[in-house]
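Convert to structure. Protein one:
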Amino acid sequence: MGICEGRVAIITGAGRGLGRAHAIEFARQGAKVVVNDIGVALDGSNVGEQPADEVVAEIEALGGEAITNGADVTSWDQTKALVEETVERFGRLDIVVNNAGFVRDRMFVSCSEEEWDAVTQVHLKGHFCLSRHAAEYWRNQSKAGETVDARIINTSSGAGLRGSIGQSAYSAAKAGIATLTLIQAAEMGRYGVTANAISPSARTRMTEEFFAETMAKPEDGGFDVMDPANVSPLVVWLASPEAREVTGQCFELSGGEICVNDGWRMGPKVDKGARWEADEVGAAVQDLLQKAVPNEKVHGT
């Protein structure tokens, strides 16, 4: 019996990469899975592929139960229908894994409005739309006196936590997702819902094109550090009843490594007890910076 036996999960962007690995592991652990994917190319353009069907076939071959869904995660109406379809088909919804995304990398000074909007739409708004409808479903259950033990698992990135050269839109969206997770955890706990985020390092279409050497499979057949399946066990555990007390966290993952991210927190401070004069501020700030923990390097620097 798996640790998510009988639970129902929606996983976005589940046709390939991390989403596919999550879907398979959820099925292995007893969950019923809604495989959401619209089959777009790396840049988000529609190429008419149907990878979700292949994932469902894999799950059914394992003896699991899954359905495909082609909702656009940036659509308020389509994600509402996705939640409704899931509940109608499986009788419940317990887990939302927000994974869908794409990249249109560009140096900030060259980034167009269209590129900025496209990337932030699918990542940040995509996390909002589905989670918002699921949250309303769970709140209504709780207010009706039902016991809720639900999960939101978001996908941030090292680019969002520390920044990444040439990825201003992607990094800003992923940073927003990390903060959104904190707010979801704080607001939804009263209804029996936890919210956590992951920041994975793994081989996907987004990473293998730009970090080919780092993402390459080992030639000697040893441990494949960048296999996306390495990330999925933590995601599934966070979705299980065992993790009901874990919320508001962001976990960085790479290979066999699990790290709890420390996040933004207050550092050194000074209080004059009165308004500062402009010519006094410089010395005070320089003293604070000497005491502060240095920022981690931006990716690509």
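Protein two, convert as well:
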Amino acid sequence: MGRDLAVDLGTANTLVYRQGEGVMFAEPTVVAVRADTSEVLAMGEEAWQLLGGDSGNVLAVRPMRHGTMTEFDVTQAMIQVVIRRSMTVRFPRPRVLVAVPSMSSEVERRAIEDAIRSAGVRQVTLVEEPLAAAIGAGLPVHEPVGHLVVDVGGGRSEMAVVSMGGVVSGRSVALGGFDLDAAVQQHIREEYGVAIGEKAAEEIKVAIGSAFPTPSSKAAVVIGRQLDTGNTVEVKITEEEVRMAIGHPVRGIVEAARLTLAEAPPELTHDVLETGMFLTGGGALLRGFDMLLAQECEVPVHVVERPLETVVIGTGRMLEHLEDYRSAFQLVRRR
């Protein structure tokens, strides 16, 4: 058996599944570059650590935005690091199966293919993310039954009705976890005149964020910079404030899921009313998101067991049985 790789190149995190071994790489999709030369110094957690150095000449770059590349050269360099760290000496030129957004253009798909091929791999095969998520969630996607998968990522949310081994209908919206973080930042800036960073906003979201009213009334304290004086100050923010702040992007994701269900063929919609919606991606961890979706879409909602890893696990399962899946799922094979 070879040691081929399955990759989930996400806006927030990059994950790699190695054939026969499972998920063996999971790092933030962030790169540390030298400001004067754009040289890539590190990626993932190591990149965040470099930012605290004394030189002041290191910048953090997120090369993926809303599921697509915004910095091709940086993404290419990052992927080369990821692939090389994931390869084994015995199998130096693996085949790579990579999950891509279902609504991505041919140009965007070609860019991902070129970036991965630049790492010296033998072959690149692309698969649509919602299909990979459905397989990762353990759904019987080959059967003539409709399943609705909603994958809420860092920069993009994908929702699709999957049946007979393919995506029947779906939507993709440029809304995700980063938009929730930005909404928290904007609220604190407008309400308190204080600026906070991306990571601080994310920590607030994780600690007290919710999409649906809860019996608790939690609060969190965040440290930021006062805009008019430049002084460092503390701000206390409540759970209800955060829920109101992130309400707009959350509603956008919910509405896209509702429309995906409404646009599906009637017989598959009937299946979904019985089987329910399967919620995956980092956004699935937002408290009460499943309850809000269930209320607005009027279907049962199931949060999958390992939402952050579902796409790469599904892509890995396809990798383990690539020849079977190639005919069944009509994967896009790139030579």
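The domain at 5-131+310-334 is CATH 3.30.420.40 (Nucleotidyltransferase; domain 5). Residues 247-263 form the longest helix (17 residues).
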